[in-house]
Amino acid sequence: MAEAGLLYKNRVMLLTQTFFIKDNKDELLLSAHKYDFDILFFDQMREFVSAVENAEGHTLFVIDLDVLYNMQDDMQQQRRQTMFLSDLLQRLPAHQQYIYLQTVRQGERFLLQQKLVDSNCLAYAEKPISNEVLVDKLFNIFARQQRGESNTIVYLGEDAQFDTQMLSQHDIELLHYQDARSLHIKVKEAQPDIVLIDEKHYLQTEALVRVLKKNIEFDSGREIVMLQHQSTSALSRQALDSGFDEILKSSDADVLTRLLINRINKIRASKDLISRDRATGLLNKIGLQKKAQEWIRRAGREDKSLAYGIIDIDKFKTINDTWGHYFGDIVIKRLSLVLSAQLGERDLLSRFGGEEFVIVFWDCSLDEGKLKLDAMRESFGKVVFEVTPGEFRQFSFSGGIAAYPSCKTENELFLQADAMLYQAKQGGRNQVCTN
């Protein structure tokens, strides 16, 4: 498996007790390797801290809090003694975040939870937790960190009272707009997550919200928020009755920006429930169709081309029938990681259904898209799977490519790429075809 080890682009560094490593290492490694990440085990604090300091790339840092009660701390001349939580947190490099494993009894202590979440805590989980569940949770965190999605706010007002740099750091784009009567056109073009309307514009054009919401294409998940300067109950009631989802009080730029970031984070979490594939963390069919339509509109405005690819794992039914659906799920997750690793910042990736994936390459011609998809196909073909103990296999996929603006709509792109995928399958599989 030395060759396969080179393919693990993600890794976990786990600080835990020696007996856990002895009893659980092989089984946990096997589960992790199936999902394309490696686990490095540490039972010494100094070695763990050094590894964290020098870590590169996609790495998660996991700490089993049982080390607090029974750990050989090489900082104390190899003598066994209890380590306090404050000692542990002080020694951990502050530029990283950590995932903590704790017992149910530890989880019942609120002050302990408070200290964790205030000290670079990425997440925590309670034990006992099975290897499969732990690995699946870690995989989902890897997938979540690689999404790279941005969100948009359209602000109708005179002066932008926001910290745009802070918004940008959270992948939020602010579009400042000043024409109330064409706001509905701007919203249709930009497809923002939040429409923020200054109360002055609302008072001048009271029908603003009704015009937006009565459009049959209006996204019910989009929030329309009024920025209120005068704190009057009558105006608040009038605005809410007009259709506003929320009212924010005008305040300093820092506070207002943080409120908007919190709202965007809630919108992201809500959208994940309906637009994400739970197994891979990728866009699902609904999420892809919406984002692809948005990308087509944006490409038209910016005079960019798009390459739209569909791929399908070759002989996937045989994989399921021979080694079981559990193994088939492993193949799908490994493929999702191979594809994600080669995406550009504005590319889209979706698990469209079953063993079928869709990729949208931004600012990419048909020929360039074929080269990119071929590179992904070759990378996946190098992944070594252990199908049974000591038996290794490699798998392939076929793909089809279409391009915008030759195809004008998301549906046209899909139908053309799907026809090319069929041609690739009929031509012998393990290839990418274009028209």
UniProtKB/TrEMBL annotation:
CDD domains: GGDEF. This is diguanylate cyclase. PANTHER family: DIGUANYLATE CYCLASE DGCM-RELATED, REGULATORY COMPONENTS OF SENSORY TRANSDUCTION SYSTEM. Pfam families: GGDEF. It is an enzyme of class 2 (transferase). Its EC number is 2.7.7.65. Signal peptide: none annotated. PROSITE patterns: GGDEF. It comes from the Bacteria. Residues 304-435 form the GGDEF domain. It catalyses: 2 GTP = 3',3'-c-di-GMP + 2 diphosphate. It comes from Undibacterium rugosum. GO terms for molecular function: diguanylate cyclase activity.
